[in-house]
Amino acid sequence: MPLPRLVPDPTHLSPLPGRFTFDAATALKVTPGAEGAARLLRTLLGPATGLPLPARPDGSVVLALDPALTGLGEEGYGLTVGTGGVLLRAADPRGLLAGIQTLRQLLPVEALADEPVAGVAWTLPCVQITDTPRFPWRGSMLDVARRFRPVSYLRRYVDLLALHKLNVLHLHLTDDQGWRMPVAALPRLTEIGGEPHGGAYTRAELTGLVTYAAERGITVVPETEMPGHVRAALAAHPELGNTPGRAYDVWDRWGVCDTVLGVHDTAMDFCRTVLDEVMDVFPSPYVHIGGEECPTTEWHTSPDALRRVAEEGLSGPDALHGWFMGRIGEHLLRAGRRPLSWTENGADLPEYFTVMPWRDSDHGRTAVRRGHRVVMAPHRTTYLDYPQSTSPAEPPGQAGEVVDLRTVHGNDPAPADWSPEEAARVLGSQVQLWTEYVPTAAHAEYLTFPRLCALAEVVWTGRHDWPGFQERLRHHRTRLDALGVPRRLSTTATPVPHL
Ligand code: ACM
């Protein structure tokens, strides 16, 4: 019996003889708590198959929530497909949502289409699967600050993540070149900061996105950058900066901008106001505050900053970064959230921060040894803005590295030589798409796939079966084709990436 080719690979999979067929008479038996999974199954299969899949007590497709199945954890599921019926079981609704994505991959690829497909039998191979993820954080970061993407696109992106059993969409909402996060008390942020190339989200769009993602088992983790990468905010509110009377533009260059937030009370109040709105919109336990690439040049000469150094008894202006992060981190803690930020070296933040090492994977080990919880995001294996091959046909991308499929697949979030205590502090890993060089949605998908599939494989399975992954990916690419993910990008159609 040929094995079904699934991405990510399930923990245990045994093929069984025969096939099951979904048809117009197929009904769902839905136990209490499994209603969301039933809705998702109808939503995902409806457009292509037209199947109504009504709920009936004698339905042959059973979606069962059973909290006693504790061995499956929060996101694991058991799936049995027999010739006479389907049984999907989990201890938590999120496990059922993961199982729905497996059912979807077991069906013919035509089931992924978003319009009716005629002449296809909706059959799937009989199989017994028990499946649990290795890591609880399986994510993808999308930079919507450098390039605004409408929320309609973010919904499509969420669907693509869910297909791969990822569970975190990390939205990079603000940066030097744009501010996309609405803050009711500070409308100029999006009026001025959202202006260049794009726009900003409304609160209703973001709360709608949060719900849409949750229905697919995905948490939206918001990131608003501070105290660096804030030039768009300074353009809207120059009083937040370090130089009274100076006017700022929303930055029109890439790189690290040396204008940063002041550390005076006006700037600290601003950060708390922004984060209170962020927490209102995003229920995510984790709230990302950026924190990286913050030159302290301005603080060395600002009278306000020097006064703060003296008042707080700090060693000098460079210590203001840690002071700032601590003050803001405590604000998030008081609100019951978990502060999250990039780390430059694994040792630059209070231990209660969850950190994302991005420069070097060794910084992850430094961080877990200090007691941090860690989400691995090392640029050499997870940054999708680097070209994926050395081919001259690749569109222009971030310079300095080539991050090919195998490199992403080789990302090992908790290497075997780390101690069990160190490994236990690794929540997982995620890919990042910075969008300086990514002018269109098609370009974003070209860069994201199939490399995101490799990340998904590693963080769900915890295994590095490269030949097996390649073999399954060959088939999986037909699923991506059915979903309209581009395999190629016309380089001639790619504008030169300047703002
Ligand atoms: C980063 O690449 N600025 C985290």
Automatic annotation (TrEMBL):
- Note whether Hydrolase occurs among the keywords: yes
Give all residue intervals belonging to the Glycoside hydrolase family 20 catalytic domain.
135-462
Q: Which GO terms describe its biological process?
A: carbohydrate metabolic process; glycosaminoglycan metabolic process
Using the UniProt record, name the top-level EC class of this enzyme in a single word. hydrolase
Q: Which GO terms describe its cellular component?
A: membrane
Record field: catalytic activity: Hydrolysis of terminal non-reducing N-acetyl-D-hexosamine residues in N-acetyl-beta-D-hexosaminides
Active-site positions on this chain: E293 (proton donor)
Protein name per Swiss-Prot or TrEMBL: beta-N-acetylhexosaminidase
The protein's organism comes out as Streptomyces cinereoruber
